Amino acid sequence: MSVFSHPDSTSTNQVSSSHSTGTADRGRWSTQRIAMYALFVALAMAVSFIEIPLMPAAPWLKYDPSGIVCILAGFAFGPSGAVIVSVLGFVPHLFVNPLGAVMAILVALGYSLPVAFIYRKRPTRAGALTGILFGAAVALVAAIVGNLFITPLYAHMSMQQVASMIVPILLPFNLLKFVINGVVSFLCYRPVCKLLTR
């Protein structure tokens, strides 16, 4: 599996060898890769507790930057990194709000996995942008479906009540959330690449 690389990078082979999971590591993850995964998971956990209300009309809907960490993990380590960070990053919330955490995991996977798969096939700026746009669309569908079927289970609301909030509240909130995640991730993925290849 190729890792975070870019055609402009002069150390692609060095990156691949330092993070590879192939014969050099005898089929096992390198210590460096495990440490990087742990760092990304810890960062996702930490920022998931930063909650910022984006819409005065719906103060209970709060944005946290953990999605950015999950997307960057997809860029840096491919689909396996996206899955590990997107799932383990929300483990603390499973003990507080398990259903909400499940929905957050599904949305994070919906965004980060398309990014990881597309960028692995096209490790260019165009590939990164395509992955972000496609991931945002998948995550938006996951968020709406999750709200329809999961939110009524713990928010004491009917599916019809949730459905009535899709256009005026849920759709604009999630669009704004995914725009923030996408823009920040697109601006940060190359600096993160350089940092990881040092």
From TrEMBL:
One of its GO terms (molecular function) is riboflavin transmembrane transporter activity. Residues 1-25 are annotated as: Disordered. Pfam families: ECF_trnsprt (PF12822). It is a multi-pass membrane protein. Keywords: Cell membrane, Membrane, Transmembrane, Transmembrane helix, Transport. The keyword Ribonucleoprotein does not apply. Its main location: membrane. It comes from the Bacteria. InterPro entries: ECF_trnsprt_substrate-spec, RibU. GO terms for cellular component: plasma membrane. Residues 9-21 have a biased composition (Low complexity). The keyword Transcription regulation does not apply. It is found in: Cell membrane. Probably a riboflavin-binding protein that interacts with the energy-coupling factor (ECF) ABC-transporter complex. Belongs to the prokaryotic riboflavin transporter (P-RFT) (TC 2.A.87) family. This is Riboflavin transporter. It comes from Bifidobacterium animalis subsp. animalis IM386.
